[in-house]
Amino acid sequence: MVTPDADVAGAAEVAPPAPALVAGTEPARGRVLVVDDEPLVRRAIRRWLGPAGFDVEEAGGADEATRIIESHPIDAVLSDVQMPDGGGVELLRAIRRIALDLPVVFLTGVPDVDTAAAAVELGAFRFLVKPPDPTGLIDVMRDACQAHALARLRREALAIGVAARQAITDRAGLEVRLDNAVGSLWLAYQPIIEPRTGAIFGLEGLMRSDEPTMRGPDAVLDAAHRTGRIGDVGRQVRALAAAGLARRDSPAALFINLHPDELLADDLVGDGPLAGHAARIVLEITERASLPSSALLSRRIAELRALGFRIAIDDIGAGYSGLTTFADLAPEIVKIDMALVRNVHDAPIKRRTIRSLCELCHDMGSLVVAEGVEVGEERDVLLDLGCDLLQGFLFGRPERLVS
User: Which of 126, 220, 276, 363 has its CA 20 to 30 A from that of 179?
Assistant: First the structure.
């Protein structure tokens, strides 16, 4: 019986050189690592890719492939799915720890829908069946190498752009623009909906500025970090929030973002502007930055709760502290980052993750908010997964309230 691998090898013995199949084109060159435990298969693929302009390296298994990728640059990987020392999916996981953008193309003689789906969800570039068409294989590997080159250029451009911005922005100029930003801060409010009733559970106050170079919160906070003025920004936001609450007679909660560095700020307690409205406020603490030491944090959280504040963890699923944040904050509300929410109806892994998060949060008595909901399909799936509250453009865009 002829095996799929033998089909590949046999095809190589009779096929004309690959360039004859793509005559008249100038192939994009790149260094391709072919990973397969069968030497005949590797030889066949080399006969196709080599004359087409690729530098081809070979590895007999996942361990050898990993060592090669760690030792010098590779532009794309073509790997068998099943190998004695670990399958291609395991290799892909290892590659992602070494080279985030390196494209991996899978080649299999036994198509398996579940394996293909898992590979694609993990970031496989393509999934091909043995024996491949030589012309098609060359095209796929050319696309893979070009995609890797583009990814590298984008990262370099980003790095250059950041460096250039920092180089041309002296501290004095940055502080002047930050002063303008803080002086022109205002809040845009976005509704948080109870989807089963349509009622507004709360509004999130989102920071905006009229300073042309710092209109969004990321630019303002970046400048505040670089100049050591997170406190100035936080105090202004809290003053604006308090003024808005004084003008608004509504039972809906107001969600205010609070940087972890601000948890110990004096104006959060005592005579601070928000203290008199604490029962109406949810303090959103992002998971993207580290928290103060546990002893200080525990005392401050107890103080805030005694005043009537509720605590929310923001950006769950996008931060670095992971689920250990729950133990420190015991939040009443958890907000799932929009990166997990986006296109959740088409992403089984995201659905499993969100369902598990909802179950964990409900076990701890926390409500779950899904952020960034934009289409009805996302809404329906999120409700089925157990999310209690939803926020996003589907329900309303952030708007400036008119007094």
Answer: 276
